[in-house]
Structure formats: structure tokens, C-alpha cells
Amino acid sequence: MDERGKIRKRYRYADMMTPYEKLKSLSNAESFLKTGVSFDRLDEIARRCSDNEARRLNQAKAQLSQLINKSRQRAA
Fold first, then answer.
1. For residue 34, what are the contacts with CB-CB under 8 A and spacing of at least 6?
2. For residues 8 and 1, is the Cβ–Cβ distance under 8 A?
3. What is the pLDDT of residue 52?
């Protein structure tokens, strides 16, 4: 608890993982996959898009959103 009595969760950096990493860490993870899907294939797909590419995609989305918002303000 903090000084105001609020319970704060703390996550250690070593315990942080993406949803995909968490799925792979489960003991019976293969049982949650659809038939015909393997972790080898999913790993291949995951490697295609690096974190840097995901950041670039998010930046492009943000720029597009700003552009749309500006054009709406001018029209009003």
C-alpha cells in the first residue's frame, strides 16, 4: 500500500512479457492452438514484424489521426 492506502501492483521487469510470450510459457500451451497451427509457424510470423516496425506503424497511425483531426477542425 502507498501512503494514501491505495494498493499498488508492482511488476518486475523480468516478469513482463507479451501475450504471445505468456501463451508460450504455459505448460500445456500447445493445447490452446487451433489444429494445424504450431509455435514454429507462429514464431516465424512474430519475427517478421520487429518492435521497431511496430513502433513505426503506431507513429504512422498517430500522424494519420492528427491529420484527420486537423481537417475536421477546419471543416467545422
1. none
2. yes
3. 74
* 29, 44, 47 from 41: Cα distances, Å: 14, 5, 10
Return the ∠ at Cα 63 (arms to 57 and 64), rounded to 5°: 90
Three-state secondary structure string covering the chain? CCCCCCCCCCCCHHHCCCHHHHHHHCCCHHHHCCCCCCHHHHHHHHHHCCHHHHHHHHHHHHHHHHHHHHHHHHHC
42 within 8 A of 20, measured Cβ to Cβ = yes
pLDDT bucket at 47, cuts 50 / 70 / 90 = confident
66 vs 53, more confident:
66
Model confidence pTM above 0.85: no
